[in-house]
Amino acid sequence: MPTDTKRLPVPETSICPSTLIEDISAKKLPLISNNKRRDDRLCTQLRHVYAKLKVISQAQGSAYIEIGNTKVICSVYGPREVKKRDEFSMDGQLCCDFKFATFSCPQRRSHLSDNEEKELSQQLLNALSPAVCLNKFPKARVEIFALVLENDGSAFSAAINCASLALVDASIELYDIPVAACVRYDGVNLIVDPQLNEEYSHQESNLSEENGQVLVAYLPVLKQISALNHVGCLSSKVLNQSMKLCIEATQKMHTIFQECIKEKVKSIMD
Amino acid sequence: MDVILSKSEKIFLTHGIEEGIREDGRAPDDYRTIDLELSVVPNANGSSRIKLGNSDVLAGVKCEIGEPDPGRPNEGKIIFNVDCSANAGTEWEGRGGDDLEIEISEFLSKAYSNKSCLDLQILGLIPGEQCWHLYIDVLILRNGGNILDAVSLAVKSALYDTEIPKVLIKMSEKGQSEVELTDNPSDYIIMSTENCPIFVSICKLGKGHVVDATAKESACTMAKIVSAVRKDGMITASQKKCSGSLQESSVLEMYEHCRKVGMELNKTLISKLSEAKNAPIVGFLA
Fold first, then answer.
1. Exposure of A188 in the CB half-sphere (CA atoms within 13 A)
2. Which residues form the domain of B222?
3. pLDDT top residue among B97 and A193
4. What is the CATH number of the domain that holds B177?
């Protein structure tokens, strides 16, 4: 792996001290007690959402989103001409880049994209491309950059939401606005929009047999699923239930985003 | 290899599948014949070669002693690596296969990250100091469609074939523990691969869906769902791939299909593995 020597790297062998603490007290608490979650939310309650369009002036379109403490910024450049002849195609092309800022997670991320980020970039592309009218910009390419500034759980679904808002802001023609949501299953309860200490991680020791997390990106008007991703051991019955919950959550989010877009349009008209 | 099909060829294939007819005469939930061979690489601790129709995959497992993760001192590690050989097609030359490599290896580690799949405690040696690192390297020799499923079959078979040398842990004079290999080369441990998942990719073409798509069928696929299915029907990871979108009802249908086919395929693989264990090694000249 080539490293950039111009930057100040941390020593290769350093580790984050929090990994050495075996029982982080928050992790030991049950996900649900007295029908309330660790942050006093109900099972199907979303965190507060704040979204803003046009936050980066030089980009064609951009958006910023906060879901609880999870913060993501996304910019869209293009459509731009494809330079290389071998990349020519009659449909437009999308290019996605998903990145965690180095300071966004409890453990430091490297400034070069790791495999997880590269894979999530591909998933972001798969989630957005069913919604974009690619035939409207032949021989051209749209570039989408999503950056997670703070990861407090459900960061990837926030990135999908942020990217679709940025596409709207860039006036790229869309069939529908992809909206994403996460659901976590801990063996007993299904909880919507997990925060970082509620997210599924295979490292936790006191897991029951059936456990996992599902992400769905949904096109609410077309009623189609554009991305689906799950980790952890789940039966097909629980998968069905969590998919339904995800879709319900995306519909709530969708109304919020519609308001946000309406406001933006109003401000342009005035 | 990427197949280039004309529009009418695609329509022909899709219409056939909507009526339950495939180009090679299989039923929608039939797999192609699986050829399996174990212990093909003498230098690896375990290896397998799978031919699924035209797809050809070679997997090898190497064991090395290293340090455990600080968060999990009692457990060993498994590391997946996928290599798309440029022999299989010029589009994989240089960095061409990178995206596919990352996609497959990330999905493998996701599917195996669940504790129930492999018992990583067996791989621990000295808590916090030393453990086994299992390097699972997959080489894709030929892509005849449905490469993901073939890779998962190869990985499970290679793990089944893996013999990890037994080691003794002794205390040295200074009070430190030391790892020592036993003298007997036939002394080894075998991991239980019973709960290892295998992948089932189900492709949506028009209104129908098929498993184990050939290269031509993959070229017509709008959306596909890949799930890692354990032998008891539990799904340890799943993902939608390709650029199309799916209706909720068809996703549910496809999951149910995946589960059924996956359980069946697990059974087939287990019976094939016990057959292959005692079969003579033919190698590449076969």
1. 8
2. 7-275
3. A193
4. 3.30.230.70
